[in-house]
Specification:
This protein is of the alpha/beta class. It is built from 13 helices and 13 strands. The strands form 3 sheets. The chain has an 8-stranded parallel β-barrel, surrounded by 5 helices. A 3-stranded mixed β-sheet has the order 6-8-9. Strands 12-13 form a two-stranded antiparallel ribbon. It is globular, with a radius of gyration of 20 Å.
Length: 399
């Protein structure tokens, strides 16, 4: 007798994209950029250097095999600008060929590549000229994007120009946590302006190269709630949410074909005349202490409905070394994604962060975000139990 089809409670649209996400500096290894320079100063929490990371520069075909093993039909990865343009105006043909091979390998396996052009790392020549503080920086970015589009445009339709512009600018230029460790409100604002301009220039360059491409950004939106049921607290929450979630989108909304949502954070805000603090009391947290709050993905998606644009969830995941929360995390978040779709949000895909354990920026190799664990000496990839859960969901287009 033929095998009965599994009855699904949460069935997703027919063309829905299921995938995972990575970024170049976190998995490739062997980079020379502003982050590798900064790591040498002892800034990484576990004392590590990114080094060879997951060795994905050499093992990219193995990574695509894992994506296929998960029954995924999309893969989000980023390009390492410092590899492609190691010196200003000089483009490395071998690096471009490797990325073209990566995109082509995706296509050959029935996987839609989603390519991020800037995921926080910079060529040294760019950083030494002031990085995103330099008024020429959007023009330099456009030159890089134009060359990349020429090389990869045949295999890439979905482009993400910039990953999390506010998170990057805030931690690098206001909080002083990431390179170049500035602590200036004015530099923070200037960088945001230049990133918005860089996105706009990249948008037109990509469309000049291909009329079929779709261009967006990856925006980390958070769900904010008021700690107190009183007008002042609610007003502050509205202002905070407007700044973090919508100020950048408002600047670039006319040059977006889609919005990429990265969802990680829920913040319960207590406000006073002296400022505001986050008062989260939910003890259900990841290994990094981040609250696990699935309903927040529904709330952030419903807020994005105002833009009347397709949405791709480009990051959603947690650090979970024991893998005892990840399967439920995936199912619960997807349940709320399904609810948002039912209520009219045009969600077209979901990428779990991450395919692999990797170098988690200033936290080093300690946080374990991967559906596959990685032995950072042998680079062996091993599936966690949650990988089979996600593979089953992707294969059945629901659960």
């Amino acid at each position: 007798m033929p095998e009965k089809k599994k009855k699904l409670k949460y069935k997703f649209p027919a063309e829905f994209l299921w995938g995972t996400a990575t970024s170049s500096h976190q998995i490739e290894g062997g980079n020379e950029n502003n982050w590798t320079e900064w790591e040498k100063g002892g800034h990484i929490a576990d004392g590590s250097l990114s080094g060879r990371a997951c060795n994905s520069w050499e093992l990219y075909k193995e990574d695509i095999r894992l994506v296929k093993e998960l029954h995924n039909n999309t893969y989000r990865f980023s390009l390492e600008w410092s590899r492609i343009e190691p010196e200003q105006g000089h483009f490395d043909h071998d690096a471009l060929r490797r990325y073209r091979d990566l995109a082509h390998e995706c296509r050959r396996n029935g996987i839609e590549p989603i390519v991020t052009l800037y995921h926080w790392t910079q060529p040294l020549w760019f950083a030494r000229q002031g990085g995103w503080l330099n008024k020429q920086s959007p023009l330099w970015f456009r030159q890089y994007v134009t060359r990349v589009a020429k090389e990869l445009g045949r295999d890439v339709t979905l482009w993400c120009t910039i990953n999390e512009p506010l998170i990057y600018s805030y931690n690098s230029y206001f909080k002083g946590k990431w390179p170049p460790q500035a602590r200036s409100f004015w530099q923070f604002k200037k960088v945001l302006r230049n990133l918005a301009k860089a996105h706009e220039l990249a948008y037109f360059s990509l469309h000049d190269g291909s009329s079929d491409c779709r261009v967006g950004i990856a925006k980390n939106n958070q769900f904010f709630e008021s700690y107190l049921n009183q007008w002042f607290n609610k007003m502050v929450v509205k202002l905070v949410s407007r700044f973090w979630n919508h100020s950048f989108l408002g600047k670039v909304r006319d040059t977006l074909d889609f919005i990429g949502l990265n969802y990680y954070f829920h913040n319960v805000v207590y406000a006073s005349m002296r400022g505001y603090v986050v008062m989260n009391e939910n003890k259900h947290i990841s290994d990094m202490g981040w609250e696990i709050f699935p309903r927040g993905i529904y709330e952030t998606l419903m807020e994005l409905k105002r833009y009347n644009l397709p949405v791709y969830i480009l990051e959603n995941g947690l650090a979970d070394a024991r893998d005892d929360r990840r399967a439920d995390f995936i199912r619960e978040h997807l349940r709320y994604v399904h609810q948002a779709i039912r209520e009219g949000v045009d969600v077209r895909g979901y990428c779990h962060w991450s395919l692999l354990d990797n170098f988690e920026w200033a936290d080093g190799f300690e946080p374990k975000f991967g559906l596959y664990s990685v032995n950072f000496k042998t680079f062996e990839r091993t599936p966690r139990a949650s990988a089979s859960v996600y593979a089953d969901i992707a294969q059945n287009n629901g659960f």
